[in-house]
Amino acid sequence: MPQQLIVGAGMVGRPLAERLMIRGDQVTVGTRSGAAAPGVESVVLNASDAQTFTRAATGMSTIFLCINPRYTDWPTQWPPVIDAALTAASVTGARLVMMGNLYPYGSPTGPMTEHSPETTTETKGLVRKELWHRARDAHDRGEIRAVEVRASDYFGPGVVGTAHLDDRFFRAILESKTARVVGRPGRVHSWSYLPDIVTTLVAAADYRGDWGRLWHVPSTAITRDDIAAQLNRRYGTHGTVAGYPQWLLKSLGALNPMMHEIWASSYQLRVPYIIDSAETERELGVGKTPWPDALAATADSYRSSGDTA
Questions:
Q1: Residue 153 to residue 192: CA distance in whole angstroms
Q2: Most exposed among 117, 165, 209, 219, judged by the fewest C-beta atoms under 10 Å?
């Protein structure tokens, strides 16, 4: 029976644990608090501590690194975490599957493939780029086996908080109100459905070919204006979408560090931002959930958990 260690129990870590458990794997989830998904083992784990990380990874087939510090903490929190993860993978022999994003590619001029140049100049993109390069270099030296799975902005049932397509967006549309968003709602953008992210992570861990590479989650490219229109047609609502002015985000960023980081990466929502996953789909045999099904499942989850019309 494969033994899997998932570091992080957030929006990705929890459903990943459930998926692996359902297929019969033995799953351990490591978090600072020791919290875990129902039915899986849990362990208190400070992901920046190489000794405890290595102890938790001993005997594991795979380490899934699924944590996501606050934007403002990326430059300080990520380096010790990747140090600890690389040490744990090297000492124990566990494979390392990193949950990543598209930030290293910077502002794209076309669809982003698994081989697109990493042209970012933005702080968070540079941090993520460095993390992957360190893991890839360790892989190339023969010290570990590592891959990174990159997704665009995620959505799905239960997504709340700071996601660009979260409960606040859906509830505003379903209540025939205006959803306020970062960027231009009429720009096409790729959205990664949480179950498809999990599917790609599992397939990447099971891959028998060469590691030391990137995988892209199959995603749907669509504007937020079109998403609102589809929801309105399906549910008989009249919601609209409006973007925050850039000057406002920049002004708020001068006073609030978190808002500064949101403004700094808002270019992703002001230009066409499309992930190309053709190679991943071909090599891993994965695909995306049909958009109408993913959209309905997400919207219905908010309708059943709240008082929307």
A1: 6
A2: 209
